[in-house]
Write a structure and sequence with these properties.
- By secondary structure, the chain is α+β, with helices and mostly antiparallel strands.
- It has one domain.
- The protein has helices at about 1-15, 50-60, 85-95, 120-130, and strands at about 35-40, 65-70, 105-110, 115, 140-145, 150-155, 165-180, 190-205, 210-215, 225-230, 235-245.
Length: about 250
């Protein structure tokens, strides 16, 4: 036993990495980023603190932070230059799924299972931490080049029933807007990971899935891409990945 330990120590000191056998203990919970969706508007004067918080979260590797500007503030004096009907529909679908009476801004949806007022930093951090300690994740590999986007979803660890939607989000990594009117008139605000398009690109039922898409279908080379695997479409997130660099140098 002493000789075995000595041999292992020598190999480790020489830079060798010893393989982990199937019998050795490993971390039973696969690590993945927690998905945070912020529903916001340029016309909402309580949203800028939440927008700033999302910017901080976007810098973290353990979070996929997405900003989804909505349209229903447009009637109050300023048309949000980044908002889309698709973002508004997604928020309304969450309200139904979570049993809420309506929608509001700034609202953060954490991993599809909890909503928090987006400017309440402690509540947001607590919700993220709770999801990090939750069930094991499904591996999601996201890669590509200027011709193709490649998505691989791994196999479920259990044999239960799974029916999840594979969402692809086209995102603008950063957008700075000078707001001309409304509640935030005269302010200049920077938004991070702004969702410009949402597409369902497949289904995951517990077995490995591969999706290949022409790069043109994911927007311009300047756009980032996020993939979220979500039970039932608007339920619990089970896997996620993000590429936020146009040349795909940063993959997480």
């Amino acid at each position: 036993m002493f000789r075995l330990r000595l041999a292992i120590a020598i190999l480790a000191g020489m830079g060798f990495v010893l393989p982990v056998s199937a019998g050795q203990p490993t971390d039973a919970k696969a690590r993945r980023p927690v998905v945070v969706e912020l529903y916001t508007s340029q016309g909402c004067n309580s949203c800028p603190p939440a927008d700033a918080l999302l910017g901080q979260l976007a810098a973290r590797k353990d979070v996929v932070a997405l900003s989804l500007p909505v349209t229903y503030w447009d009637m109050l004096g300023w048309r949000d230059t980044l908002a889309s009907d698709a973002n508004t529909r997604r928020q309304k679908a969450y309200a139904k799924e979570l049993g809420r009476g309506g929608v509001y801004t700034p609202q953060m949806i954490i991993d599809g299972v909890k909503d928090v007022v987006g400017s309440r930093e402690q509540a947001v951090e607590a919700a993220i931490a709770a999801r990090m300690a939750d069930a094991q994740a499904i591996p999601v590999d996201l890669g590509g080049n200027r011709q193709q986007v490649h998505i691989e979803i791994g196999q479920a660890a259990d044999r239960g029933e799974h029916d999840a939607t594979i969402w692809m989000f086209r995102i603008v990594p950063q957008a700075t807007v000078s707001i001309g009117d409304g509640e935030n008139g005269g302010r200049t605000i920077t938004y991070h990971n702004v969702v410009r398009e949402i597409r369902a690109v497949g289904n995951w039922k517990g077995q490995p899935v591969t999706v290949n898409l022409p790069r043109a279908e994911a927007g311009s080379p300047r756009d980032g891409i996020a993939v979220v695997v979500q039970q039932g479409g608007y339920g619990r997130v089970v896997g996620a990945a993000l590429i936020d660099h146009p040349n795909y140098d940063l993959i997480r």
